[in-house]
Specification:
Layout: H1 3-9, E1 14-18, H2 35-41, E2 47-51, H3 55-61, E3 67-68, E4 85-90
Parallel strand pairs: 2-3, 2-4
Antiparallel strand pairs: 1-4
Length: about 90
């Protein structure tokens, strides 16, 4: 596991994947995957990773290649290709 993912492993609450084979068992198209599964997806051309943490956590611990949503309109950040798998993650409640 990469050092960045190791730091996030304890804080990563969930990663939801939309329209993905990983989420095939979910009836609404969403599912939860592990940090190991997220690591395997990083850099894949058909995957877009979004960090929905607050600015401070983004600056300290974001995943390589992740897009910080912050206060921006999510619709403006989504890829045009509807087949792209979307991964969203945050540190979650403690």
């Amino acid at each position: 596991m990469s050092p960045c993912l190791s730091r996030l492993a304890g804080a990563l609450a969930a990663a939801a994947v939309l329209a993905s084979p990983l989420a095939a068992c979910a009836t609404d198209g969403f599912g939860t995957i592990s940090t190991d599964e997220v690591e395997k997806l990083l850099g894949a051309p058909d995957v877009k990773v979004f960090d929905v943490n607050v600015d401070e956590l983004w600056q300290m611990h974001h995943l390589p290649g992740a897009v910080h949503v912050g206060e921006r309109d999510l619709a403006t950040l989504l890829p045009k290709d509807k087949a792209t798998r979307l991964v969203f993650y945050c540190s979650g409640p403690k």
